[in-house]
Design goal:
Strand content: 15-25%
Number of helices: 16
Shape: globular
Structural class: alpha/beta
Strand order of the largest sheet: 3-2-1-4-15-16-17
Number of strands: 17
Helix content: 25-40%
């Protein structure tokens, strides 16, 4: 017993020493933006101890021995969120025609995880410190990537991952081929309640943070009652449901069923957007820039038309007062762009829709953190929160284009990028 007490005392002592030895960093911020209130305070000091923020305020005493980072000429704000990424997926119309099945067959899980690691680094360096990966990662490559980032094997944002997407038979595949080829790890096909139950539980077992369902990938689709069943079963394990919905009918059913978020929702009516607000359903906007649409294979006229239609939907959602969360849904490569810079270009769609900078920032921080369930530790610069910070020379509350000039990134107290 005495030896156990001695070991316990030693453990407590070591823990206290670890706290005392935690690296302290003091950041001098010329302006400090709070997206939730839309304010920018001048000449603030942020004290970071280890991975978390210890104190924030003007004129704070800087502890002896602290590392000082001078951002007095810059605007500091919380790290950004992208709530709809596909880090382990890259469609190449020249090789796979934009068909998910061919993409999956061309790239095994190991290659996709490695490519995902490269995309994760690019997202983090662009200022995205938290992302929600929405599947299309084959055999749980997204879960493996999340683990590798958490263990420090590769550099990337904090990840929440969907695992395998649940869908009616065929998923989003357009190719008709042998059943054994179709039943590939890209999706979990589930049509009956028993199959839905099994698919949800399999995802949870392998570590999914969110359940993603394809509502309307084929002519047949999940009913409102099917979706309510999915929401209830996922909720029993504390998980939210994200619904991929690209048709008017699909968006209506998902909103009626009370999913946590509708992804895309390009054809949603004003009535359904208002119902979403009433039901607490969030819209994750993925309005594709024209260059991304062209990379998907659209000609210039088609890309312009599709982009315009999607911006019009975003404008309607904003006017209804529906909470909007930023999501990029990038799955292609555009010459001269990284995965991170391409994601940032999606803010132009918000500007075109007439959404003010404060609301755009909220979609990339406050609203996103709330949807992802991390609002008590990420998405703001407050004591006790993780030290996820970015800095830019200009104030994004005045001009959201400032986000494209991020030159400093800190994730959980560690400097990831610091450009001169």
């Amino acid at each position: 017993m005495d030896s156990l007490r001695a070991l316990f005392s030693l453990a407590v002592l070591l823990l206290s020493w670890g706290s005392a030895w935690a690296q302290v960093t003091a950041i001098r911020a010329g302006r400090l933006v709070d997206p939730e209130t839309g304010t920018a305070l001048a000449n603030q000091v942020i004290l970071v101890e280890g991975s978390r923020i210890k104190a924030v305020g003007p004129g704070l005493a800087i502890p002896e021995g602290a590392t000082v980072i001078d951002l007095s000429g810059a605007t500091v704000l919380p790290g950004l969120f992208d709530a709809h990424t596909h880090l382990c997926a890259t469609l190449d119309p020249s090789q796979d025609g934009g068909e998910f099945l061919l993409m999956s067959l061309r790239s095994r899980a190991g290659y996709r995880a490695l490519r995902g690691a490269a995309h994760a680094r690019e997202m983090l360096e662009a200022g995205f410190t938290t992302v929600r990966d929405m599947g299309n990662a084959g055999d749980y490559a997204d879960i493996d990537l999340r683990r590798a980032i958490k263990e420090g094997l590769v550099s990337g944002p904090t990840m929440l991952a969907a695992g395998r997407i649940i869908a009616p038979f065929g998923g989003q595949f357009g190719v008709r081929t042998r059943r054994e080829v179709l039943e590939d790890p890209e999706y979990l096909f589930a049509d009956t309640r028993d199959e839905l139950l099994k698919a949800i539980r399999e995802n949870i077992f392998f570590g999914a943070d969110v359940i993603k369902v394809v509502v309307d990938g084929q002519r047949y689709a999940y009913s409102t009652e099917d979706l309510r069943f999915i929401v209830a079963e996922a909720g029993r394990s504390g998980l939210k449901v994200a619904a991929h919905a690209q048709t008017k009918e699909g968006a209506h059913r998902a909103i009626e069923a009370g999913v946590a978020s509708v992804e895309h929702g390009f054809k949603a009516t004003d009535e359904d957007l208002a119902l979403a607000k009433k039901n607490g359903v969030v819209l994750v906007s993925t309005v594709f820039p024209e260059d991304v649409l062209r990379a998907f294979g659209w000609d210039a006229a088609g890309a312009r038309r599709v982009h315009g239609n999607q911006v019009e939907r975003l404008d309607r959602a904003w006017k209804v007062g529906l909470p909007i969360v930023f999501g990029s849904d990038v799955m292609v490569e555009v010459q001269g762009q990284t995965r991170g810079s391409l994601a940032l270009s999606y803010t132009d769609s918000f500007v075109r829709a007439g959404i003010p900078p404060r609301a755009i920032l909220q979609s990339m921080t406050t609203h996103a953190a709330r949807l992802l369930g991390v609002e008590k530790e990420r998405g703001a610069i407050k004591p006790g929160f993780f030290a996820d910070l970015v800095a830019t020379p200009r104030n994004p509350l005045d001009d959201i284009q400032a986000l494209k000039q991020i030159h400093f990134v800190m994730k959980e107290g560690r400097v990831v990028r610091r450009a001169p």
